[in-house]
Amino acid sequence: MTPSDNPWASRPFKLLFGLWIGANLCGWMHEAASGWLMASLNATPLEVALLQGFTALPAFLLALPSGALSDLVDRRRIIVVAYSLVTFVSFAVGISILAGYLSPALLLIASLAMGVTFAIRLPAYSSIMQEVLPRIAVPRAVVWNGASMNASRIFGPTIVGIIIAWGEPAYVYLINGVAMLALTVMLVRWRRPRARASTLPSERFFGAIRVGLQFARQTPALRAVLIRSFAYFFFAIVQLALLPVVVRDELDGASSTYTMLFGLFGLGAIIVLPTMTWLRTKLSRDQLVSSAIAMQAMASMTFALSTNLIMLALAMVMAGYAWLTVASILGVTAQFLLPAWVRGRGLAAMQMAFMGGGAFGSAIWGQIASVWTISAAFAVAACGALVSITLIRFYPVTGVAEEDLTPSRYWPEPAMATPIDHDEGPVQVMIEYLIDPANEEPFATLMQESRRLRLRAGAISWALFRDPANAGRYVEQWVEESWVEFLRHRDRLTVGEQEVRDRKRAFHIAKEPPVWTYLVATDLARRRSERGTTAA
Questions:
Q1: Strands 427-434 vs 473-480: parallel, antiparallel or unpaired
Q2: Cβ neighbours of residue 439 under 8 Å, at least 6 residues apart?
Q3: DSSP 407
Q4: What 8-state DSSP symbol labels residue 494?
Q5: What DSSP state is assigned to residue 413?
Q6: Alpha helix locations (H) across 372-459?
C-alpha cells in the first residue's frame, strides 16, 4: 500500500497536533500578556525587546544538549517534563502577580523559564513527528504545525485581551496553568509505539553533542539551512520584539490594539497553509525564501515610515506570512537531511539558529530603539534583511540531493579472535583498494564524499593513503573513538552510504573485494594487541 502524503491519516499525529496547538496557545497567551504588562510598567524599549530575547536565548544555549537528550531518551517523557515545567511557571507567575509582585524582573525571569521549556520540548516534538508519519507526509505536517503555531498567535492574544479587559492579568497565567496541566495528563496517558531498540549501550551525553556538531559540519546543505535561518530571524524578530513599544509610544494604543496587531501576525502565517503547495510548484526553495525575505523587509520598512494603523496591520500580516514561509521551507529541508539516529540533534541545531538569531536580534533592535529611535531600528532591520538575500549565492538550498536515509547495515560482522570490550580504543579502520592508475582523479574525488560520510557518522579522523611502490593501491583509513563507537557507526549506515560504497567498489580492479582491516589500540601496560581482517 502506497503511503499517503496526508498527515491526518495518522492517529498519533492527530493527538500530537492537538497537544501542539494547546501548548502553543498557552505560550502565546503568556507572551502577549507579558509583552503588554511590560509596556504598561513604562519599561524602556530595550527591556520590552528583551522579553523576546529572554524567550529565545535558552533555545539558543540549550538546543544541542536538548537535541542530544531527545536522541538518547524517550521523547514522550521529555515533552511530559517540559509541559510540567510550563504548568509550574504559569501558576507561579499568576500567584506572584496576585500577591503584588509584578515587576519587569518577574516578567523577564518568567520569559526565560518559558524559553527553557520550549528549548526542551521542540527537538523532541519535531523528531517524534517522523516516527508517526511516512516520509512523504512530513512536508505537509511541517506546514500544518507551523500554521497552527501561528494560529495560536491570533486566538492567544485575543483571549488575553478579553481577560485583561474584564479581569486581572494574573488570570491569564492561572488559566494557562490549568490548561497545561490537562495537556500533561493527556500526554502521560498516550502509549507511544516502541522503536527498534539497539543492543548497544546508550551514547554518552557529551559524546552525542560532539557527534551532532560533527554531523552538521560535514553536511553542507544543513550548514546552509542553519546560516540562512540565523540571518532571517535576526532581522525578522524586530516585528515582535518592538511591537509593544510601537503600540505604546507611536500609536498611544491600548491592550486591544496590541493584541489585535499581534494576532494579525498569526493570521498572515495561516494564509501560508492553502498557498504553499501551489507555490512549491511555481518557485524553487531559494526563490520562495528570497521572496519571503523581501516581504519581511517591506513590513519592517512600513513600521519605520508609517504610524497608520491599517498600514501596520497589513504589515503584520505580511510579516507573519514571510515568517512561516521561511520556517517551513528551511524546516522541511532540514528534516530530509537527517537520519533517525541524529534527527533530534540536527533539528536542535536548526532551533539554535532560529532562536540565536531571535535572541541577538531582539537585543540589537531594542538597543537601537533606545539609543536612536524606533523607526531607525525598523529601517536598519529592513535594509539588513534585503542584504541577507545575497546569502543564496553562497548557501543555496535549492537542488539539495535527497539522500536515501533508510538504515542499511551493509558492513559485515567483524571477525574477532578474542573478545573486545566496548570501551577499548581508539580503533583504526582501513580498507584497501586497487584501482586503474588512469582513474586516480575521479577515485580521489569520490573519496572526498566518503570522507564526509565517515566523519559525519562520528569518526574522529580520516585519511587516504597511496602506495608509491604499487601504482593504483590506495588505503582508506579512519579512526573511531572506541570499539562501541565503531559498532554505532555500523548501526548508522544508510542506503545512500551503501550506494557510495558501490561506486567506490566499481573502481576496484582486483578479483577479491577490498580488504577491511581493523586495529584496536594496545594497552601497553598489559601488552595486549588485537587484530583481525574481513572482506569489506
A1: antiparallel
A2: 507
A3: B
A4: B
A5: P
A6: 374-388, 391-394, 440-456
Q: What percent of the chain clears pLDDT 70, i.e. is strictly above it? A: 93
Give CA–CA dist 294/298, Å, rounded: 6
Q: Looking at beta carbons, which pairs linking 518-522 to residues 24 or more positions away fall under 8 Å?
A: 518/414, 518/427, 518/428, 518/429, 518/430, 518/486, 519/427, 519/428, 519/429, 519/430, 520/420, 520/424, 520/425, 520/427, 520/483, 521/424, 521/425, 521/426, 521/427, 521/428
Residue with cell 586497487: 434
> What CA–CA distance (Å, rounded) separates 455 from 429?
13
Check: CB of residue 82 under 8 Å from CB of residue 120: yes
Are the CB atoms for 239 and 300 separated by under 8 Å?
Answer: yes
CB contact at 8 A, 70 and 208: no
Write the pLDDT tens digit of every residue in 401-433.
667 788 887 887 777 778 888 888 899 999 999
Are the C-beta atoms of 159 and 341 separated by less than 8 Å?
Answer: no
What is the band of 150 on the pLDDT scale with cuts at 50, 70, 90? Answer: low
Q: Return the sign of the alpha-carbon dihedral for residues 259, 261, 265, 268.
A: positive
Asked whether the beta carbons of 334 and 350 are under 8 A apart, the reply is yes
In this predicted structure, what is the pLDDT of residue 528? 47
Which strands, in side-by-side order, build the sheet including 427-434?
A: 461-466, 473-480, 427-434, 515-520, 530-535
Going by C-beta distance under 8 Å and a sequence separation of 6 or more, which residues neighbour residue 400? 221, 224, 285, 333, 336, 337
Share the mean pLDDT of the chain: 85
**Mean pLDDT of all residues in 64-85:** 84
Question: Tens digit of pLDDT for each residue in 170-208?
Answer: 899 999 999 999 999 988 888 766 555 556 666 777 778
Q: Counting beta carbons within 10 angstroms of the beta carbon of residue 530, is it exposed (0 to 12), middle (13 to 18) or buried (19 or more)?
A: middle
> Any residues with CB less than 8 A from the CB of 120 and at least 6 apart, and which?
62, 66, 69, 78, 81, 82, 85
- DSSP tag of 340: G
What are the chain's domains?
Answer: 8-190+205-394 (1.20.1250.20), 427-535 (3.30.70.100)
How far, in Å, CA of 440 to CA of 483, rounded?
32
3-class secondary structure, 5? coil
The answer to whether residues 223 and 217 touch, using CB atoms and an 8 Å cutoff, is yes
Looking at residue 120, its pLDDT comes to 84
| pLDDT band, residue 453 (cuts 50/70/90) | very high
Distances 241 to 40, 244, 247, 363, 535 between C-alpha atoms, Å: 15, 8, 12, 9, 60
CA separation for the pair 246, 532 (Å, rounded): 70
Q: Using CA atoms, how far apart are residues 239 and 316, in angstroms rounded to an integer?
A: 8
SS3 string, 135-190, reads: HHHHHHHHHHHHHHHHHHHHHHHHHHHHHHHHCCCHHHHHHHHHHHHHHHHHHHHC
Q: Is the pLDDT of residue 356 over 50?
A: yes
Q: Cα–chain-centroid distance for residue 255?
A: 33
Up-side HSE of residue 390: CA atoms within 13 Å toward CB? 4
